[in-house]
Amino acid sequence: MSEHKGPRYGLLGLGALGLVVMLGAFIAPQAEAESIAPDSTTLKDTVQALPDNNLQSLKELDGKPPARRTLNIQTWKTAEGAKVMFVEARELPMFNLRLTYAAGSSQDRSTPGIAVLTNAMLNEGVAGKNVGAIAEGFEGLGADFSNGAYRDMAVTSLRSLSAVDKREPALKLFAQVVGKPTFPADSLARIKNQLLAGFEYQKQNPGKLAGNELFKRLYGDHPYAHPSEGTAKSISPISIAQLKAFHAKAYAAGNAVIALVGDLSRSEAEAIAAQVSSALPKGPALPKIEQPVDPKAGETHIEFASKQTHLMLAQLGIERNDPDFVALTLGNSVLGGGGFGSRLMTEVREKRGLTYGVSSGFTPMQVPGPFMITLQTRAELSENTLKLVQDIVRDFLITGPTQKELDDAKRELSGSFPLSTASNADIVGQLGAIGFYDLPLTYLEDFMQQAQNVTVEQVKAAMNKHLSADKMVIVTAGPTVPQKPLPPPTDKPTQQPLGVPEH
After folding, report:
1. Which of 74, 81, 333, 426 could form a disulfide linkage to 409, CB 3.0–4.6 angstroms apart?
2. How far apart (Å, rounded) are the C-alpha atoms in residues 479 and 499?
3. pLDDT of 39 higher than 80
4. What structural domains and CATH numbers belong to the chain?
5. Chain-centre distance of CA 81, in angstroms?
6. Residue 348 region, left (φ>0) first, then alpha (ψ -120 to 50), else beta?
């Protein structure tokens, strides 16, 4: 999921999806990491494709291998307790600023949706300026503000020219937006109405219904269980006073990571960090959320009139700092995270024509995030397709990847790795995640070094340690119809996949 900058719609191509899953190993924020999770959308990013800068980066490569970029990460703390991560980059007369707060929906507690609603309201008003004036203020300076809220985190970002006459007013406005939002009543009513309309739309979206049910089954009473945007029942009564109280604790300086990249000296970066930190509410970091409990395996079906059935399989995965993350990244790439050529895509789509696309992925978070497999298939083939997917997972856990499959996954990872630091926006996202998840400053370099040294046996052991084909929580959404046998595997399947998914 990318951050909000305005409405943008599109269908993510399968080739790009494979790249996103691989880049998820090291590109930071949960915005990307949650992209495989069907209910991680917020109010402002319901249906979005890859960020434009990522696609432009791919175009600019023009088939040439991208150069790796070594980052000299500097870090310190502000007087108010905010962690700062800084990389000097003088190539362009610009800088990127990203604040990452432990202010995602896992902090909603008894008020589901308050984290998303608070984040959406930040740039709706400050003293003397409404939402339109704020937008015009940034635009007039050639600056760009964006924000988003997810399960673990909320973010606010600024991109600006580094010249003092542009930088200083942009930072002043940014500090007002993140530190002293006014939460105007008319904006709150409008955004609530948008959310309520979204909830009505979700009733006609079998993928969203299945995703919500999956997280409920997977996480039970845990803070990850509810949809990030809340529900119609929980959103409606949220008051301005509640938003202000949530902002005061969750957007406190001690609960924030300040990431800076660009045309700045260390002293300029220190001054910017101090300015932003002092503008935030005063307060400490919020406590880490509790660990989830392993769910009971089983299948739940949601009846929905459709030609296709959505299939979702999941179990608890790993935390962001799990030592098996590298091996699991490579193993998942072979299983279903690498797009065409992965086991799932080869067996389910290419040999049998059962789906337009199937993917798997770990979403590592503060506490174990989900491992998920998602696909759509013809309703009359859904039961046997589900069994086929389970058999593929079971067989992969028994045999592990071949040496060639692992080598191919390493090569793909190595080729895509430079894209994780291709732009200042990419780097600032990396810094935010490194700071938020308390990863070592050498994390990116360490990750690639470890990836090149991982063996087939280590991948197999890690996948078996964290996954079991018989412990999956399964949710399906579609019609109940008589079932048919699957077509036999072939290099030229007669049953071609439906071109574009219904929902």
Report:
1. 333
2. 20
3. no
4. 69-279 (3.30.830.10)
5. 26
6. alpha
